[in-house]
Amino acid sequence: MSTAGATTIESLLDLDSLLSEEDRDLRTMVRQFGEQRLRPHIAEWYEAGEVPVRELAPEIGKLGLLGMHLTGYGCSGSSATAYGLVCQELEAVDSGLRSLVSVQGSLAMFAIHRWGSEEQREQWLPGMAAGELIGCFGLTEPDFGSNPGGMRTTARRDGSDWILNGSKMWITNASVADVAIVWARSQDDDRRVVGFAVPTSTPGFSAREMTHKLSLRASVTSEFSLDDVRVPDDARLPEAQGLSGPLSCLSEARFGIVFGAVGAARDCLEATLDYVGSRQVFDKPLAGYQLTQAKIADMAVELAKAQLLALHLGRLKDEGRIRPEQVSVGKLNNVREAITIARQCRTLLGANGITLEYPVMRHAGNLESVLTYEGTSEVHQLVIGEALTGVSAFR
């Protein structure tokens, strides 16, 4: 079936008209990097459950994508919208690759940039921006995910040092990281939450990669333990006071997911459109059936709405007006719609949809994790519910 002159997903609502030429050029550059450097290997990495983080990070750093929305210390200070578009293009290849950039820039680097000392910024950020140093973000614990306030990891004063004990779980890049942002509960100051930039070479720090995953297989997921890890006071993030520190970092990461989920959904739909145009069923293309077109139309409309929401939130963030509940709206809606699109696309690909020859099942599997991390759907529903009613339902 000829598709000459067919409307593309992006041209359906002329969404490119909402972007600056600079943003479009950046998107094109990252898309080309994804197609040429990442996509040829992603199925292999996913199937093997391995990804060459140490090899990829410097390449991504050379493109200026690590911590790109931060200013100074080797970071370009780009707009939030530009950063979102980068997340979108990386996740169009695989959620794990977007996670690499998101955890490095929006969690580990942002924590140091926003809450660290000048000395910490100069020590860590240039190398992290270049991809020469890898960071991870240790908040989630085996028994405390959605309730970080219940964390059991402790920090105890010992003279001019701190002694850290505890464990963190589901931590991206921890087993390959040079520095871990560790959040702990102080035993010396009303059990307030404090943060530290801990070199992973510190005695007592150990990490191991988590295996047997059925999602985010092209991503390094680890757990790490702190066994009487001694760090000087200058490893503490001095500006972080209480849970506002780690929660602000999570809001940064969630923003990237708002755009990233759009990329995963778009890749599913593009692959499906190509497939149904060539797949012959009962002597005509699958694309020529009304039920096929109804599914495609519904998915395209939801995808366009998700893209518009992401761009709107990007504008709000660029203007410094975005609120946490607005990020929750974006994360809740866009991931929920993306996983619905992935599942629907799989139905159109039939049995072919479960193979790694096509990206759909891989995206669907990844989105199961994206639906959960950086706040489950239920958490974001409660954030939005509290904003609308003025009543907290968390407890």
TrEMBL record:
The keyword Nucleotidyltransferase does not apply. SUPFAM superfamilies: Acyl-CoA dehydrogenase C-terminal domain-like, Acyl-CoA dehydrogenase NM domain-like. Keywords: FAD, Flavoprotein, Oxidoreductase, Transit peptide. Its cofactor is FAD. Residues 20-132 form the Acyl-CoA dehydrogenase/oxidase N-terminal domain. GO terms for biological process: fatty acid beta-oxidation using acyl-CoA dehydrogenase; fatty-acyl-CoA biosynthetic process. Residues 241-388 form the Acyl-CoA dehydrogenase/oxidase C-terminal domain. The keyword Ligase does not apply. Residues 136-229 form the Acyl-CoA oxidase/dehydrogenase middle domain. Pfam families: Acyl-CoA_dh_1, Acyl-CoA_dh_M, Acyl-CoA_dh_N. One of its GO terms (molecular function) is glutaryl-CoA dehydrogenase activity. It catalyses: a 2,3-saturated acyl-CoA + A = a 2,3-dehydroacyl-CoA + AH2. Belongs to the acyl-CoA dehydrogenase family. This is Acyl-CoA dehydrogenase. It comes from Mycolicibacterium chubuense (strain NBB4).
